[in-house]
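Just curious: can you write a single protein's sequence together with how it folds?
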Amino acid sequence: MPSLPRDVRPALAPALAPVAARVAARVAARVAAPVAARVAARVAALVGPLVVLGLLAGCTDGTQTTAPTSAAPASTTSPSSPPSSSTPAAAPRPVGHETLWLCRPGLPDNPCEGELDVTVISGDGTRREQALAPAIDPVADCFYVYPTVSEARTDNAPLEVTDAEVFVVRAQAAPLAQACRLFAPVYRQITRLGLVSGALRSPEARDLAFEDVRSAFNDYLNTANAGRPFVLVGHSQGATTLVRLIQEEIDGDPALRGRLLSALLLGATVSTRPGERAGGSFVHVPACEDAEQSGCVVSYASYAGRPPPDGVFGRSTPERAALCVSPAALLGRGERLAAVLPAAAMRSEPAVVADPPSTDFVEVPGAVTGRCRSTDAFAWLDVTVEADALADLPALTGRADPAWGLHRVDVNLALGDLVDLVASQAQAWTARGGPSWDR
């Protein structure tokens, strides 16, 4: 497989000033001016929110040992969901407070819509821009929960939109708009400081984050779902929160589980019974085995080679085997991953370079490969970076903290595959007229 020559590396640097200006303009329309002013600097730094995507909240498979607390208090500032044209047949599900949506259809200045074009850089360094746009009237919805990005100086984040949430939803979720309607709530997640201070061990802190997500999911079901199939998408803390949501709200509800197209739970340990495709984290939601199956889960933790003994993610026990499902393998693509990287994350030097990509996203076909591997102690997506120009990016080497592997880019390593998988599952759903397990 050809590698990119080193003399094309400058061409792969991010669109620093243009990208920063566009993102800052989007944020300025939605958040306070001091927050928007920091966006350009954040986009220009590789060690932005992508560096800490989730942290230790992804270490477990989400099994709960404590009951959730009561619903969060009502917010007086958060906008509610848009009304649906169809009234759900079931009784309304409980909503603890109005939902503050980061992304949803019809939201002004929606960061999940628009500017999805990519710069495709081939092995010989030539470029082409590919125009991409949100799907028109897609079959499915995607409900996305972002990883740990909050820099608030409290254990739980406030209910507000900052540049950190906008950055990560653009980087991880926005391309999925090609295959589904995107819904992404703001929630009072455990912050980066909270992880250090021990809030992860606090049932109250965990429950506060979870109840916000459960309330937002119920709000979505009440006002926008109207019986449509949905995909749950989360990374690290977001994925762990969705594991609990499936356990408490979906796994034991055949009607709701029948609408689950799939769950893409990345950078968090989802487990099964050893040697089986189900059991462990969920009773009735198995691992996906093909690109047309519904009601199943895709999960992996990525490492550049074998995880070290102290690896944080993808850990197995004799009773529970960590799950690894490659979306590329489900699509019949073998080991080649369709990586989609934010243009800002392509920079390895701080200087502004000539002729930066004019798009927000970059693809380098054939640059990244990965396959699922397992031992008694771990199951992981074993990733190899083939292109020289990408090999030096700190996010893709895992050298900064080997125990974390490639955690911060779990989603982007196969984001193109994830988009295509959702589209394939939705097409199969339409052809069948419903879930695969109810044929």
